[in-house]
Amino acid sequence: MSYGDAQKIADKKNLDLVKIAPMAKPPVCRIMDYGKYRFEQEKREKEARKNQHIVDIKEVRLGLNTDIGDFNTKVRHAARFLGDGDKVKVSIRFRGRELGHPEIGYDSMRRFAEACSEFSIVERPAKMEGRTMMMFLSPKPVK
After folding, report:
1. How do the domains of the chain map onto residue ranges?
2. Nearest by Cα to 62 from 98, 86, 24
3. 30 beta partners
4. What is the dihedral of CA 127, 131, 132, 133, to 10 degrees?
5. Interatomic CA distance for residues 122 and 86, integer angstroms
6. What topology does CATH give the domain 57-139?
7. How far apart, in whole angstroms, are the C-alpha atoms of residue 99 and residue 6?
8. Backbone angles phi and psi of 120, in degrees to 5
9. What Å distances lie between residue 100 and 90, 93, 95, CA to CA?
10. Residue 142: its pLDDT value, please?
11. pLDDT of residue 135
């Protein structure tokens, strides 16, 4: 059908002539209410954005000499963050002579990962970067 004929039919029905595939030979068009189409499309996009969950990265800082009470408190904080669906970055900052004993930091990180193992998986294992040791935990996938 020619463009002119299609436009006349669209004008009679008080609708718009919209090119669906303009690069095709011949171009494909549709007769529709374009305003209503755009409104419904925006409504679907808005609904999709509303149902989206943005994952944040929360940080828990340990010390090399963190005692058991503080350690358990930090595990509870990490559990709350992971329960909310956020990722957790666990870090230890080495100061002064502590830098000579990274094995103590690895041991703390291992204990922390074991304490959080029921509700998290280790996304990135403990690794030294300068004076800081970091490990990333992510929530276990819901089955």
Report:
1. 3-50, 57-139
2. 98
3. 18
4. 30
5. 13
6. Translation Initiation Factor IF3 (3.30.110)
7. 77
8. -150, 160
9. 20, 13, 10
10. 72
11. 95
pLDDT digits (tens, 9 = 90+) for 84-113: 888 999 999 999 888 898 999 999 999 999
Classified by CATH at the fold level, domain 3-50 comes out as Ubiquitin-like (UB roll) (3.10.20)
In the sheet where 87-93 sits, what is the strand order?
A: 57-62, 87-93, 132-139, 120-129
Q: How far is CA 133 from CA 45, 125, 136, in A?
A: 41, 10, 11
Three-class HEC string of 1-67: CCHHHHHHHHHHCCCEEEEEECCCCCCEEEEECHHHHHHHHHHHHHHHHHCCCCCCEEEEEECCCCC
Q: Is pLDDT at 143 greater than 70 in this prediction?
A: no
Give tens-digit pLDDT for 38-92: 999 999 999 888 877 777 899 999 988 888 999 999 999 999 999 888 899 999 9
**DSSP class of residue 86?**
-
- How far is residue 86's CA from residue 56's CA, in Å, rounded to a whole number? 5
What are residue 16's phi and psi, to 5 degrees?
A: -105, 150
